[in-house]
Each structure stands twice: as structure tokens, then as C-alpha cells.
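We emphasize that the prediction below concerns an isolated chain of 716 residues; any contacts that depend on oligomerization or on bound cofactors are therefore not represented. The input was used exactly as deposited, without trimming of termini.
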Amino acid sequence: MNRLISETSPYLRQHADNPVDWYPWGPEAFAEARARHLPVLLSVGYSTCHWCHVMAHESFEDAAVAAYINEHFVSIKVDREERPDIDALYMSAVQAMTGQGGWPMTVFLTPEGEPFYAGTYFPPRDMQGLPSFGRLLQSISHSWQTQPDKLRLNASVLTDYLREQEGAARDTASRETGAGETGSGETADPLAVLNPQRATENIQRLFDERYGGFGRAPKFPAPTALAFLLTQPQGRDMALFTLRQMALGGIHDQLGGGFHRYSVDERWLVPHFEKMLYDNAQLARVYLQAFQLSADPFYLDVARRTLGYLEREMLSPEGGFYSAQDADQAGIEGQYFVWTPAELSALLGPDAPLAITYWGVDEAGNFADPHHPEFGRRSVLSVVSSPAELAAQFGLSEGEVTARLEAARLTLLTARHSRPHPGQDDKILTSWNGLALWAFADAARITGEAQYLNIARHNAELILGHVQDSAGGLYHVATRQEGTVSGGKVTGLLEDSALYGLGLLALYQAGGEVSHLTKARELWQWVHQHFYNAEQGFFYSTGAGAEALLTRQVQAFDSAVLSDNAAAALLGAWMSRYFAAETEGQQAAERVLQTYGPQMLAAPTGFGGLWQVAALLAAPLSELAIVGQAEARRPLEQEAARHFLPFTVLASATPQQTNLLGDETALPDVLHGRLNPENPLAASSPALAYVCRARVCQLPVAKAAALGEQLAALTE
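Result of the prediction step, given as a C-alpha cell string:
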């Protein structure tokens, strides 16, 4: 009996019809393993993972393989996105045993949950040094039957190693950065060691000057590192060049907007086709920042198209964002996204040669699914010619070229919608929704467009109204049933409170509703209370009330998403900047930097989140408050949006928020004394802007031009 049919995870439900007798993660599976004296087969993946689909089709759908599994193992399926704590724990085991990791993840456990053998994808036949999955199963089962004590000893040794590694890495980091007391009795200053310029110089050594990005193929977008580089004068050119090259490449969906997971080549040409909420939310923010910094509309256009994709294809009717879209359609990787010259000619008529030249479509193609050679070679669209080059080649003006290409894009996008659509993982994950909230809030603030703000507010209403647990934290998964959303699936994860808190802070900056700042502040206090280890200087990934696993994980390295420690430290640092008396946030952020300093210097592209924290703490305190009615504030806010102010406290409020006048502790420090309608300055103008540095404020201004001058001087 397969038990996955009633699970909320689309990934688990994808396996509900397998002949494998799957259990979801839980005590029932381990009790069964103990009762039958069998090892556990743990398989971890996610719904849009191409190789997860391949292994499922080759092995888990095979009746003979499934029969052997059912007789000799108790099998557990885990969605890594739904249970990142389980995934992180056993991925550590995979990496310890093999030196690398990935998905699908295949781990063999004792009935007590201790791993004794681990790997990733196993093929149906021996190939490229990998044993077939069937042969591996037989070998593991034989060893369990004949040498169970040896396997249990191996499991115990590996488990002890994982526990020791968790502590040793942090202890070593703390010693190397001088965390704790120095010889003089003073606490070492992490910023004296962690100069952001050093990180920029180290990243420069990895930079691909030809194609952008860092290192060689495969190339990942690295949004946290790019966001950090944009804040550094020596790093901006690297970031802007990389963002442009990515946007011109096939990793960027040239028709529908948004970005695929990564590029299999160094040129950003051929992607791995799944689209993830976290990639697109983070990249949308980075492109918005690139626009602010450069004033180049190219970056704003990419951000708009990315946000448009999220709104069109990833937004649920209730206001939550779905998790991902699949790489496969009808079992063929990428077929939804690729084209032949004949298809473009049939759809575009006389404009086909222009489009074919612009997007680099030819008979040879640049992509084929090796598992489906009958599908043939086709082209991933990428920009290979500029409008100016096309204008000269086709005897048109640049304006005509641009207009015809846009018409062609819409025609192809409409035609694409008639193809079999990629599968969608409709889980609503709180942490990833925090990233989306952050992106749409920033878009609202930077563009001034109400639609972005409405989407952000609707998302906050959904999560805060339906996904909070009774203790004050946030559930990890929002469950959708019959048009309603509720929490209740997995709680006690740091990423949810920290990332959603950052999203709420951005929403306050965009809309000026102090309630959003208050909730961000409450989430920070929850994070500090339930996840922070002050003695060792880090944040646990799980709270004390979460399910106890073999080890309690700590994450500081950015995977595809801002790491748990970076998100928590960033939220804490911002709260101390908004509320100076609450020093715990800055202190915790400094301690985290002390703990992870050596790793940050050694692998700067992997610690972009913590380098953002270091850059924030190194920047002089600056503040901008805009007070007045919403309409009156708009010209001042539009002027502020023209300026790239990554380290500035942004605050706004309406004088009529009289419910706050009696308790200024609810307000950011920069607003204290500025909301009283009887204030003579407030009476002189419907809106005023205050620019402050090191808590010393210049004279308030009422005109956008004057504010622009003050902000320009602030960033010099």
C-alpha cells in the first residue's frame, strides 16, 4: 500500500502510484523498520527535479525493482522543499561519503535513522562507474542480512562524524576570527577582518570576464553574491556585466520572462529548464537594484518581465506564490521552451528572418534531450544580435526592429501556451514567499506602481492571517484546500521567520504601514529567542520545538537562497538600525560574522548573504524619513526611488496615525517627534523629507529636487 496519495506535497503525490510501498517521513515508517528488522531506503527529491523524474521512471515505476524494495526495505519519500531540515542532515551524509551531493538523494538508514550508505542518482544498469540501482539494492540487503552489526557500526561512526563536524566547523571558525575574548580582554571586531573590499577582490579572481558569472560550467545565478557586489564600488561592473549576460542568454526565458535554474554551459545559453520561485524572486530584486544603480532601463525591463512571470504563472488566487515549474513536459526535458526555424517561419511569416536572427535559431539547434533523441535538435532562444545590428542588416530603423520583435515575442508566447505545460509544484512555502514579498515590495517602492504593492500586501495578509502558528512563529508550508489556505505543515524553521521578516520590512519601506514593521520586529524577536546560540555565535536552522533529528543543523553557506544565518543576521542588523535601543540584532550579526569569517573570505561567492551583513554593518548609519499624506509624499518618494540606498533606513508615515503618537517606541527612531500634526514644520508643508547621517539630520525639505541633492551628497 502506497501511503503518499493524501500528502500535501506535489512531489510525494507524484509517487503515489508507484509500486514501491512508500511511507512519508514519520514515526510509522521507522517503527515498521524496527518491527521487520529491515534497513530504511530514504529517497529525497523535489517535484521539478529532472533526474528525480528519470530515476522514478527507471526504477521506482519498475514492478520488479519495486517488489525487491518492498521485501527488503522500508521506503520513505521526502520532499526536500517541504522538509529542508531532513534534506540538509542527510545531504551532509552524502557529501561526507561521496564528496559531492545532489538530487535525487538516496540514503540507506538503520531503523534508528542513522545513515550507513549514501549517494544520489543510480541508473538502471551499470554505467560510468555507478552500480545499477538493482545491484546496489541487492548488495545493501545482503550486507544487512549477513553483517548487520558492521553496518550499524558504520552508521554510528558516520553519525558521530556528522555531529562532530557540526561543532568543529563552528569552533574552528570562531578561533580563527578571534570570537570571544582577545588577549587585551576586548572582543575582536569582525569588521576589522571582514572588510568587504577583501571579499570583492577574492570574487574578482573567480570572475569570468568573457561571459560573466563566477567559475566555469555549470553556472548558477548567485543572486546573493551579485546583490553584495552591487553595493561595492569595485564590484559593480562585475555584477552589472553578469546580469546583462544572463538576461541575454537562454537561462532567461526570452518570451515569458523569468529565469531557469542554471546554465549547463559557461555562456548562459542552455539552461536546466525548471523555474524556481526563489531564483526569480531574488533575481528580480537584484535587477531592480541594478536599475537604481545604473539608471539603465534594460535592467528594469528584465525585472518587470520576471515579476510579470511570477504574477502570471506562479501566483495563487489566494495571494500566495507557488514553489516551482518543472523542467519536463510530457517526459521530455525543455520541449515547452525550444524552437525550430520552421516553427518560427510558420508563426511569424515575413518577420521570421528577423526573429530567427535575433534569437539565434538555426537547423543545427543548441539543445537535445539525450533520453529522447526522436525529439531532435532544437534551439533555446537567446539574444545574439542587437537591434542596431538588425536594423543595418534588414534596412529598418531601430524602432521598427524593436516593435516587430515585441510583436513576434507575443505571437510566440501565445503559441507556446498551446503546448503541454510544465508541471507545477503548487506548494506555498513561507520562506520563499518572503523572498517574493521582498521583491514585489521593492518593485512597488522603486517603480511606484500600485499593482506591485497590492500583490505584496495581499501576500502579507495571507501569510500573517493564515500561516502563523499558535506560539508566534510561522508554519513552513501553507496548505491549500478548497480555496482556503491554512498553516499546519512543518513548523520551527528559521528560514520562514527570518526571510518573511525581511519581506515585511521591505513592505513597510514601500507602503509606510507601521504594522508591517511591527510584525517584522516581532519575528526578529522570535528568531533571537528561539534560534540564536549566543555562546557560539550562530543561529540554528531549527527551533527547540522542531522535530529532533540526529543533529541540529546550522546553515551559513548560501545555497540557492540566502542562508539561514545570513537572513537572521540581516534582519537583526536592520532592526537595530531602525530601533537603536535594541542592540541585540547588531550584536548577534557581529557574532555570526566572527563565527564564519574564515569561510567568508575563502569562498566569498558562497557567502554573499553574510557579506551583505558585513557591508551593512560597515556602512555609516543613514536614514531617510518622509512624513505626510500618501499623495503628498509621492513626489518625494519617487525622487528617493531614483537613488540606490542599500544601507539606508527608509521610513515613512502619515501624521494622522494618531494611534501611534502615544507610543513612539512602535516607530522607527527617525520618526520620533515628527508625526505630531501640531508640529510647525508639518503645518508648513503637506509632506517633508528628513535625511540623517549618524543620527544627525539635515533641515527637512519639501521639494523633490532638494531631496535629490541631499541624497546625492549622502551617497558620495
